[in-house]
User: What shape does this take?
Amino acid sequence: MSSYRSYGLPLRVARVPRPAGVALFAAFGVLGSLATLLIALAGLWSVLQNGIVPSRQLGVCAIATGVSLAALWINWGLWELLGWAWWANMLLTLLSAAALGVALRYVPLAGGVLGTLLPSTSTLNPNTVALALIVGLLAYHLIVLAYLASARTVFKVGVKDERPIWERIHRN
Assistant: This one.
C-alpha cells in the first residue's frame, strides 16, 4: 500500500450527453439550412445565367446565401453543444418567428406564387396551403424557442462554472 493518495484525475473529460431534443432540432436546422442554401444558390445561378446585370434579385440571392451559411454554422454549433450557438440559435429562431408572423399578412400573395409554381395543387386552395405552411413553421419555431429555453443548462448558459480557474480556459 502506498503512502500517498493520488488525486485520481480523469484521463478523459466527461462530456455532457446530447439531449435528444437538441439533436433533433440541430439536425432539422442543418437540413433546413442546407435546403435554403441550395435554393439560394439555384436562384443565384439562374440570375447569373440570364446575363442580368447586378440587380435586386442578385442582391437578395446573395444575402439569402450568406444567411443560410450563417444558419448552417449556428446549427452545427448547436449540435456541438456550444454556448454561443445557444444564444445565436435563440436569436435566429426569434427572428424567423417574427418573419413568419409578418408573412401571415402576405398569405394571398404566397398562395398565388404557390399556385403558379405548383399547379398540381390546383385541387387545393393555394391560400389555405400557404397559410398551413406558415402557421406550421411558426408553431415549430415557437416549440424550438420553448425547448431551448428549458435546455439552457446543457449549454452552460446561466449556470455557475464550478471548475478551477485553470480549467475554464478550455472550450468545454
Remarks:
- The chain has two domains: 20-80, 82-158.
- The radius of gyration is 22 Å.
- The first helix runs from residue 20 to 49.
- The chain has a mean pLDDT of 85.
